[in-house]
Amino acid sequence: MRPQVQPTVEPFLQTVADASRSLLLLDYDGTLAPFRTRRDQAFPYPGIASVLQRIIHNSHTRVVIISGRDAEDTIRLLGIQPAPEVWGLHGSQRMKPGGPAENVQPDPAALETLAVADHWLGYQQLRHLAEFKPGSIAVHWRDLEEWEADQIRGRILLGWMHIAQDTGMDLLEFDCGVEIRASATDKGDAVRAIANEMDSDTPVAYLGDDSTDERAFKAVNNRGLSVLVRPQWRRTAAQLWIKPPNELLDFLEQWLGACQKQDSSKGAAAGNG
Whole-structure pTM over 0.85, yes or no? Predict the structure, then answer.
């Protein structure tokens, strides 16, 4: 890692090495995997799935993926067996290891509003850019020319902004896209819910890349480490910035090393006993 990064990472990872249990929370798209125009081909950066699998098998760390994707979609792309716990749809969906997805069902009024938002996309001839999820619709314009992306964004917001304001829906802009969704949980809520299931002194880190991760960064800042994973820096509430894929892989390997250091220390103590 860059020299300015390591002094922040090392003291935190020492707490991971000293703790009996730790918590690693990770966004998916843009963090563990590069963005792809074909979203069904957004597989993790080389080496990432392997090191995450080793962290999970080590058993000292609870690994949770928190994504805007559907949980089953995230698990398929990640390709880890057994699969980790995944909170999908920005925290509105939870899938425990080996269990079914538990969804927060949008109310009928929200579904009617989404139908209106969908109608606007059809009127603008933009449905081919849409991703339809339970409780939300997201439109992506990654890899389009800047002028075309700006035009599409303006056309969508022209209709969706009024729909959201009139109905209380959330309008969420992210890198190269916008999403209209039923007001429910966000990634910050998911972080707090997961952290509250752990002891208060459990070391916790959240890694994310997008504006949708900002609430998660803020939620973790009072008790752990927040990490922006992004090729270019941007203004953020995160405490640390690392670049994918090499620095991300290095961070995860150091996390694994901290867990293994704990195993070595316990083994030495047992031998001395």
Answer: no
pLDDT at 269: 47
Contact 157, 144 (CB under 8 A): no
- Helix crossing, 108-123 with 146-167: angle to 10°? 150
Q: What is the DSSP pairing of strand 130-133 with strand 136-140?
A: antiparallel
* Alpha-carbon radius of gyration of the chain: 20
Token pair recorded at residue 128: 């081919």
* Sheet hosting strand 170-174, strand order edge to edge: 130-133, 136-140, 177-181, 170-174
Mind listing the domains of the chain with CATH numbers? 6-103+185-268 (3.40.50.1000), 108-181 (3.30.70)
**pLDDT exceeds cutoff 70 at 265:** no
- Which is more confidently placed, 243 or 82? 243
What region, left, alpha or beta, does residue 150 occupy, with left being phi > 0 and alpha being psi -120 to 50 degrees?
A: alpha
For the segment 208-227, the average pLDDT, to the nearest whole number, is 94
